[in-house]
Specification:
The protein has 107 residues and is mostly helical. It is 54% helix and 6% strand. Strands 1-2 form a two-stranded antiparallel ribbon. The radius of gyration is 36 Å and the shape is elongated. The relative contact order is 0.04.
Amino acid sequence: MKIKCGPIVLFFIIYIWAYSIFNAVNADEPKVQMPNTDQEMCQLFLKSEICAMTQTEQETYFLGIFKALIDAQIQENLKEHEGEGHDICLRQLDNGMFIKCNEGESI
């Protein structure tokens, strides 16, 4: 009598698959405690030194960061357009309107 090993191998593959699935389902999850107070929330998402500041100190701190970001962006834009320059010449008429100067003409 010849024993076929195909069904035996298939049985063990399904057994191992089912074992891994059911062990993953029964795994203990780590318990994460959510912060309850505003101070704990602040320390969770921000630096602890910012949480210890007063409201005006925090505003000054964040305005300084914002100003540094804006200045960096302005400097980057200036470097991009450094070589590009346009001279605009406008002449005011007696009625208060402005017109473009003729080429080569200056005020």
